[in-house]
Hints:
The chain is built from 6 helices and 18 strands. It is mainly beta. It folds into 3 domains: 1-18 and 58-168, Hotdog Thioesterase (Thiol Ester Dehydrase, Chain A); 171-305, no CATH class; 320-449, Thiol Ester Dehydrase, Chain A, CATH 3.10.129. The strands form 3 sheets. Strands 1, 2, 3, 4, 5, 14, 15, 16, 17 and 18 form a 10-stranded antiparallel beta sheet that branches. Strands 11-10-9-12-13 form a 5-stranded antiparallel beta sheet, with no helix packed on it. The chain has a 3-stranded antiparallel beta sheet with strand order 7-6-8.
Amino acid sequence: MNFEAYQGLPSASGGVAPDLVNAPMIRHWCEAMGDANPAYTGPDAVAPPAMLQAWTMGNSGRSEHFDALLRELEAAGYVSVVATDCEQEYLRPLRIGERVLFDAVIESVSGEKRTALGTGRFVTTRMDLRAYDEAAGEKPGEATPLGSHRFRILKFTPANRSDRSARPQGVDRQGADGQGVDGQPPLRPRPVVNRDNAGFWDGVTAGELRFQRCDDCGTARFPWLPGCNGCGSDRWHAEAAAGAGTVYSKVTVHHPVPAAFGKPYAVALVELAEGVRIVANVVGVPPEQVVIGMPVGLGFQRFDEELVLPVFHPAGSDRLPPLRVPVTRTLIVAGAIASRDYQDVHHDAELARAKGAPDIFMNILTTNGLVGRYVTDWTGPHARIESIAIRLGVPAYPGDELQFSGEVARRDGELVELAIRGTNRLGVHVSGTVKVRLQHSDEQKGEHA
């Protein structure tokens, strides 16, 4: 089947949001998310940026082309679906009384990929949005760019239990010359996972950097080994590093730069506070600014659909305070309703179980909304989110708790890039990047949200 033939075709019908931007929908969204940002209330209120997609939900259903693509994927055995990524860019605030227009296309259909869930294909759609002030008498031709929304799902064949330990190797996008094949960008090298180091990679999946500690003499060790270097004992347990470290030594790779890296990059030997050392990239600053003795902090970076690696960034005081959000049934259902996502797996436990989930689970739009809330809780109302890009990990089920953490990854004047992560008892639920422009003035709040 030629799935790629669907690329460039419309993914949604309608093109016009069913409702004007209005205060009741904004209020319902904020109540569901627990978002008390004053920029979203009052006579000059604007809509929460993360609410962008919610305005297009409703009568703007999937196009016949997108439905046909899904039918062909299911006929090929990709019967299950899960949302994986959401990337939104916000060009300006959206105000009450405006009408949203949009154009949506099927941007890409990937080749077959092996994932922890099973073998499948990633389908990416892109929506470009405009808006005009209908309440003020403006016409559709006067609509101005509002932003964009890129959404990615995985249509897959569920893996057998015995297959889930197999790690994808990504060979379908790695040519012999390292340049990639079939027009796809090249991949970074895949890690070699074996019985001796599998616990480390399980930790990465869970958002932890794990090292070993000997049960007999207490010596910490890394890389992972079957025996202790101190006393030779084969008895040990795993511990998660707190994340603080110091650059012990470093090199900058200038030439030849592998195609998957694209430009010079810093590789450091980082000494962790626990006394072990690990080789990793230092990100967030130009490589020439990475120096021996620099304090660094742990982070995790996703490089493609399959690969997440621990990285380090310069440490500092730019850490967001933690946020704990209980995952209740009310939150899951209210978030789905506020985002106009009526898929049964987000409100009907019986049907969710029939589709293989143990219970209802949070939808990606609610997760996106909580990320937006977390950031503006830190910045206050005098800031403007410019983009949110997130990737989902483990699901969020009722009875759990999301614990959000974040840090400043990069500063460029008033523009700040934040690395955000939300974890629960299953591991990392969401990770991503938020770009926010800090503004410290008394301008109209409609210019700051």
